[in-house]
């Protein structure tokens, strides 16, 4: 964003085997990458692979949260239904005693 440049080592391009960088990137491509190291002399090491892993993790986390919310809502509804049934049952018992 601020015009700084960094280096993406061949091992940080993809989780797949990268025989030829040109199969994945072209000269002057603009890519999103994660800063993994800044040396004392200001050289910036970047990783596309790790950024993708972070994004995949966040997607899985969001899906997990959504699944938890669904399960929690289902549990709460079932609990409320059971409590309602229990109250009705207790009221019916009182009527007959």
Task: Give the count of helical stretches.
Answer: 1
Percentage of helical residues? 40-55%
What is the number of E strands? 3
**What fraction of residues sit in β-strands?**
5-15%
What strand line-up does the widest sheet have?
Answer: 1-3-2
Rough shape?
rod-shaped
Strand pairing plus helix content: what structural class? Answer: mainly alpha
What profile does the largest beta sheet have? 3 strands, mixed
* Poorly predicted runs of 5 or more residues: none
Computed over alpha carbons, the radius of gyration is 28 Å
Listing every helix as H and every strand as E from the N terminus to the C terminus, the arrangement reads: EEEH
Write the layout of secondary structure elements.
Blueprint: E1 7-8, E2 34-38, E3 44-47, H1 48-96
Parallel strand pairs: 1-3
Antiparallel strand pairs: 2-3
Features:
3 strands, 3-stranded mixed beta sheet, rod-shaped, mainly alpha, 97 residues
Describe the structure.
- With 97 residues, the protein is mainly alpha-helical.
- The chain has one domain (7-96).
- 51% of the residues lie in helices and 11% in strands.
- The chain contains one helix and three strands, in the order βββα.
- Strands 1-3-2 form a three-stranded mixed sheet.
- The protein starts with 6 loop residues before the first strand and ends with a helix.
């Amino acid at each position: 964003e601020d015009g700084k440049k960094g280096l993406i080592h061949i091992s940080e391009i993809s989780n797949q085997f990268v025989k030829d960088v040109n199969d994945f990137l072209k000269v002057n491509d603009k890519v999103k990458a994660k800063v993994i190291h800044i040396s004392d002399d200001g050289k910036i090491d970047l990783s596309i692979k790790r950024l993708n892993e972070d994004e995949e993790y966040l997607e899985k986390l969001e899906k997990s949260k959504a699944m938890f919310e669904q399960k929690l809502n289902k549990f709460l509804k079932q609990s409320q239904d059971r409590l309602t049934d229990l109250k009705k049952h207790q009221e019916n018992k009182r009527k007959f005693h």
